[in-house]
Amino acid sequence: MRHLVFLLPALLLLLALPDTRGRYNDDFDDGEDIAEFDDNDFAEFEDVSEDPAVDVEKEPPPRAAPPSTPVEDDEDEATVENEDGQDEFEDADAQDQDMYSKYDNEEFEGYEKTNPSFKDTLIYREVPAHLQNSWESYYMEILMVTGLLAYIMNYIIGKNKNSRLAQAWFNSHRELLESNFALVGDDGTSKEATSTGKLNQENEHIYNLWCSGRVCCEGMLIQLKFLKRQDLLNVLSRMMRPACDQVQVKVTLNDEDMDTFVFAVGSRKAMARLQKELQDLSEFCGDKPKSGTKYGIPDSLAILSEMGEVTDGVMDSKMVHYLTTHADKIESIHFSDQFSGPKVMQEEGQPLKLPETKKTLLFTFNVPGMGNTSPKDMDSLLPLMNMVIYSIDKLKKLRLNREGKQKADRNRARVEENFLKHTHAQRQEAAQTRREEKKRAEKERIMNEEDPDRQRRLEEAAQRREQKKLEKKQMKMKQIKVKAM
Amino acid sequence: MTVNNMADPRRPTKIFRYKPPNTETNPTLEDPTPDYMNLLGMIFSMCGLMLKLKWCAWIAVYCSFISFANSRSSEDTKQMMSSFMLSISAVVMSYLQNPQPMSPPW
């Protein structure tokens, strides 16, 4: 028993020895906190590889705080009560308590601590961005929303600009139109044909105006095709590829208002494009666009014509004057009695009819400014509208001579023949199917007939008809053979 | 004395009503942009919802805006609103499921 009594303090002394050595060293230091002593004391028990990392740093201070306070209390008690001789033991005791209190789990109930890892490598976890509580991490979202706001702003500005341009155009042309047409502005929905007196908005960038009630024409449809200023994508693409606003005028004529010819004049590019795209220009004006310098118009304009006489007739002095002064604004002018729109792509197996044609005058004008138009520019289009009215009146009076008329008729007959030839196979197929349908219908009728006598009679009648047909065919073949011989 | 040669060219008796051009016979006249953008918007919003891709949902919102800007006045507003609502819901759902900010592809 006695051995144990002496053994215990000796053991404790041995264990506390490193600490006490540190203590004595610390005693000679001036002005140091007791807490600092604790850190140094415990330093020997802490692992050397422990680096001051982000996460780990956060952990030790809170962890160190609770242990330090009870340790302090113990030490205070120790220093006050003990005498010099017993200081070591008392201190050792206190320190043992400190040591144990450090690892006393009950003090840290509910407090999660990560022990300093005794491995060499530590894994540092990134705090997830959305927990960081900073708006900066959401910069992509902020960018997106800014982009959307920019789009909306551009939409409003573009829409307003287009609307102002349209109104400016209408204000400058209203007088001319009202003096020439009985009906200015119609959307086709109202019961009575009264002038609405305003543009019909189809889109944020397309405005229509229908005018009717005049000599020499059926009606005139004016389309203001502005640039898509309300669409930001379009605005950006226009920075790469400049384009301009266009005014398209389509005048439909009655049969007596125009003679039979096809004629077009406009910028070279437009003429080349229209010749490929439009049905009538490709069929009737087969030659390449010719320069118009012979008639006195600038070289930038080219002419597509069915025959020379037509060009001579259309290009009178006033027309030449119009074309020369406003050459930059004219995209294309197209007069045609066979207008049917662009070439339609035919699907296989569809029986074709000749497309419907209408006597039409088409004008396409470019608004000056190349996109940067202001409402004032709309006034410069007024002379062009005068030219339109002049053309309508002029074409009423323009008549081909006998030769020209014959040539025109021959051309039209030729086109029709070509068309019929191309569709011959398809039309034959269609006729064949129709014949088969008829036969099938008749057979069904016979089958459905209840009276056997009538059935027999109908069958015989059908047989006789078929015999007759066969005989006719054979006769024809014989005749052809005889003729060939 | 100037004689006004120009008689009044107006003829109230010769009025023809406006007939909107038949777009079935001439499909080239129609601008396909709003329809394509509408379809794209729906596809992207579906992708964003199903695959939980935030950037898909944002592109869907843009597509529906572009479709709206290019649409014709005669078009149904219900269609526009439905595609718009779908894209907004795709964005909201993506963020509710995963509040992390979008990471750029670079």
Description:
The complex is a heterodimer of chains A (485) and B (106). In chain A, helix 1 (2-27) packs across helix 5. In chain A, strand 3 (206-214) and strand 4 (217-225) form a beta hairpin. Residues 20-36 and 50-87 of chain A have low confidence and may be disordered. The relative contact order of chain A is 0.07. Chain A has 485 residues and is of the alpha+beta class. Chain A is built from 14 helices and ten strands. Chain A is flat, with a radius of gyration of 50 Å. Among the domains of chain A are: 144-400, no CATH class; 402-448; 454-484. In chain A, strands 1, 2, 3, 4, 5, 6, 7, 8, 9 and 10 form a ten-stranded antiparallel beta sheet that branches. Chain A has helices at 2-27, 34-43, 54-58, 60-81, 87-102, 139-180, 232-240, 268-277, 279-284, 308-314, 317-325, 382-397, 402-448, 452-484; strands at residues 183-184, 200-201, 206-214, 217-225, 246-252, 262-267, 290-291, 301-305, 330-339, 358-366. Chain B contains three helices and no strands. Mean pLDDT of chain B is 85; it is low at 1-5. With 106 residues, chain B is an all-alpha fold. Chain B: This is PAT complex subunit Asterix. Chain B: Its main location: membrane. Chain B: InterPro entries: ASTER. Chain B: Keywords: Membrane, Transmembrane, Transmembrane helix. Chain B: One of its GO terms (biological process) is protein insertion into ER membrane.
Key attributes of the depicted protein:
heterodimer, A: 485 residues, 53% helix, flat, B: 106 residues, 3 helices, ASTER (chain B), protein folding chaperone (chain B)
